[in-house]
Amino acid sequence: MSRIKATMGTPLMRTVLVDGPQLRRIRLDARLTMKTIAEMIGVQESTVSRIERGEHPIESIGDDKTAQWAEILGINPARMPRRETRPDPDNILVRMSHERGWTVKDLGEQAGVNPSSLQRYWYEDSPVTSMTAGYLYAIARVLGTSMERLAGRPEPDPGAVPEPPEDWDGEPLRWYRGQAGLPQVNLAVKSGQPQNVISGIETGRRSTGRVRAGTLLDLAAALGVPAERLIAGAAPLVHTPRDPRPDPEETGAESDAGTLDDDEAFRLFREGVEAHRAAGADPRPEDAETLWERWLARHDRQVLEGRQSA
Questions:
Q1: Among the four 14, 129, 152, 292, which has the fewest Cβ within 10 Å?
Q2: Among candidates 126, 91, 97, 131, which has minimal Cα distance to 113?
Q3: Could you tell me which residues come within 8 angstroms of residue 131 by beta carbon, excluding any fewer than 6 positions away?
Q4: Where is the composition biased (Acidic residues) (predicted)?
């Protein structure tokens, strides 16, 4: 607490109801960065960013970390932003987990998946087909069901198509496509997935565990096989967050002078995305999110620098 008091003075307990954006403004008033908050409560900086933007439930970090965050900012923990709705009991993830007495945190720990990443599917903010195939396979495995059932799709007959022989050392997708007698272009048409995705998987340039679950489910349905058979080794993947770009403060580089308002930061962000596209490197959604988080972090630093120099 000495570090907090040295930065903020004695915190005053606020009783106003706050949402994510208000939480960010309180943090800026306290002259704290997202990185500082993340380090002090023990979470990823991107988690702080998503909670402040209202895109991620604060429940995912647990009551202890939420209380720490509130204490740092001088907010009554009862006033921290929380999701008001409960998960739909008919959601198959929720129902099958509750049958085992599991919470979303328990499911994540059992499947080897970050529980905070499961929140969006637990509350149906996103369909399970948008998670990676490795995630969905890991969850299906611990729940004792199929990827198709979790995605609400028809389950194919596992015995309809033989499995690759033990000495097969290529990608399963290539084997099953050969058994079906389908050229890549025909499988692309039948599955609705781009041919370059199929080629990337078969050549090993794309990991089957890291493609979108919906992509793998589409390919599996077109071939009449369970989706899990297309995952090389049928092993779940563990999420490894990408390292963010080093901050100028950490690398010793000089940060940009002046301050940016939100509109200016977003304009520059859009220009950066357009530059990526013009260079032929169209960013994926997760890349765009990372770019935006970097802009927010840069913006916060500049706001703090402007206030400290005022």
A1: 152
A2: 131
A3: 117, 121, 212, 213
A4: 249-262
